[in-house]
Write a structure and sequence with these properties.
mainly alpha
């Protein structure tokens, strides 16, 4: 090997390691922010983290990083309350639909074109943000609830498989069930935990969840303490902040991120 080749390889290694360090720093910052938001409003970690990480990596890689922080923070939220058994008995059709569609949807983050996945995620963020900003009053009838729950789960699972985000339409549906505040927070934790496990299973089946699939290997586990620290800080801030105005800012930010992702995907598609 010549001196020129050695110099070129060394320079490439330095550039590669520098890029990995930069992206890892972005991951830690994103999960600190996403955990903070989740600690204050009870949701938003997968939505915000997928939206922000999509600008520096593929949606499939972002979903791999998301799995463990999402599972632990949502399991924490799911167990923090007295209504879990009642919610499982009422919402099992929703969870079953989520599992089935996430595992067997015809498209996924791995098989779907990156621009299409990014645009789909952006559109889902925009719809969710508009509903949040408009404070649309929703109400689901008790008659036929199991059928409606199952259908909502199937749609949520299909969107989860394609975008890695599992808030729509599950969150608006849960908000329409006239649950108490504490029951709603716990129901969100239950639904998100099931969705995270289903997405993990899909990624494993498709061979995405391995150290070799990610640059930096298991160094991306740094996202976990960042998310937990952010969530703990958010819980402490919950009682000190004006939650109504914070939610408005949160949804406005999601709308901006979604619009950016849709426009960016369209530009890349037209340029390609």
């Amino acid at each position: 090997m010549t001196t020129a080749n050695i110099d070129q390889n060394g320079a490439a290694a330095i550039v590669g390691s520098g890029q990995e360090a930069f992206i890892l720093g972005v991951v830690v910052a994103v999960f600190l922010l996403a955990g903070l938001v989740k600690g204050v409003v009870g949701l938003g970690l997968p939505t915000l983290s997928m939206g922000l990480l999509a600008s520096v990596m593929s949606p499939a890689h972002a979903a791999v990083i998301l799995i463990l922080p999402s599972f632990l923070t949502n399991a924490w939220q799911m167990w923090d309350g007295a209504a879990l058994g009642q919610l499982v008995r009422r919402l099992w059709p929703l969870q079953l639909g989520v599992i089935a569609a996430t595992l067997w949807a015809p498209v996924s983050l791995v098989t779907l074109d990156a621009n299409v996945a990014s645009a789909g995620l952006g559109a889902a963020l925009m719809v969710y943000a508009v509903l949040g900003l408009a404070a649309v009053p929703l109400s689901a009838p008790r008659r036929g609830e199991r059928l409606l729950s199952g259908a909502t789960g199937l749609v949520t699972g299909a969107i989860t498989a394609a975008t890695g985000v599992f808030v729509f339409p599950a969150v608006p549906y849960l908000q329409a069930l006239s649950l108490t505040k504490d029951e709603l927070v716990q129901a969100l934790g239950l639904s998100f935990t099931v969705s995270t496990l289903a997405l993990f299973a899909r990624l494993v089946l498709e061979g995405s969840f391995t150290a070799g699939a990610m640059p930096g290997g298991w160094g991306w586990l740094a996202a976990l303490p960042a998310a937990l620290l952010g969530m703990a800080a958010g819980q402490m801030l919950r009682g000190r902040l004006d939650e109504r105005n914070f939610k408005r800012l949160f949804f406005a930010g999601l709308l901006a991120i979604g619009l950016y992702m849709v426009i960016g995907s369209a530009i890349r598609w037209l340029a390609g």
